[in-house]
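Lab notebook: predicted structure, single chain.

Context: the supervisor wants predicted structures on file for every construct in the current expression panel, including those that have not yet been purified. This is the next one on the list. No modifications to the sequence; it matches the entry in the shared construct table.
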Amino acid sequence: MKLVLRLLVVVVVALGVFAGAGVVATWAPDRSVAQLAVRWAQSPSQFVNVLGMQVHLRDEGPRDDPYPIVLLHGTSDSLHTWEGWSQNLKGQRRVIRFDLPAFGLTGPDAENDYSIAAYVRFVTAVLDNLGVRAFVLAGNSLGGQIAWNTALALPQRVHQLVLVDAAGYPLQPQSVPIGFQIARMRGARALMEYVLPRGVVESSLRNVYGDPAKVTPGLVDRYYELALRAGNRKALASRLDQRVSGDDARIKDVKVPTLILWGAQDHLIPLDNAKRFAADIAGSKLVVFDGLGHVPQEEDAQKTVEVFRAFIGLR
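Prediction complete. Output recorded below exactly as produced.
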């Protein structure tokens, strides 16, 4: 019996040592905006005070554009996801993109409100601050849900709407990135405010890409480092707690010209959702990209932006 007890003690101690070593190895404290801005807010980035937040945004292209292009990213993403589109478009059109509250360098919402209504107010306030009245609005995932809700709230200002693997219908994912799973687990997510294994970020990215081989170390760096922005991890948990679906009955009320872009290999918001958007939004056009996943605008910027250019009449 004494031998068994001794072995048990050894096992418990060993597990504790390994667990402690794991925490130390993945210890990832918050980073300040100043620390992160050196790499992720280089020119033409700027910070604008909107609704009590210092909003990280990029505003490029000709200022006489009657319909600037506004690009909204998804959950745990940032304005950088639209880099390929922006580089392609800014020579001819004004392109505006910014980090949404809870994400990127903008960070937590001042009121801890991550409802879709709050995001619509935020987008409206940013554009009002920039003096933009009418615009083309495109959004991916969460950004897509914000986009079509903004089109409903501001039909006279949204000239054209583009939904890229957009949220809105009740979610029935085929696969959920591990990072989102952890953020929904109350016990685990408390620990994740202090530790963040890089492998979790990489696994989550590979999950949402149609071709996981396209997930480069530099891409993982971006998502990993911006997740460490002070307050972002806690804000993500709050955002997921406040996630509301069931407003899909209003999608049929969208009346602006709409383009729907979708990755055929999207396992988070499957292709069936794209078909529902196409059926519910009268006159909309659906384009599906074989081989691409949940963030097609990032995974293949050239192929996706070409379809977008045709939709808005750019040659």
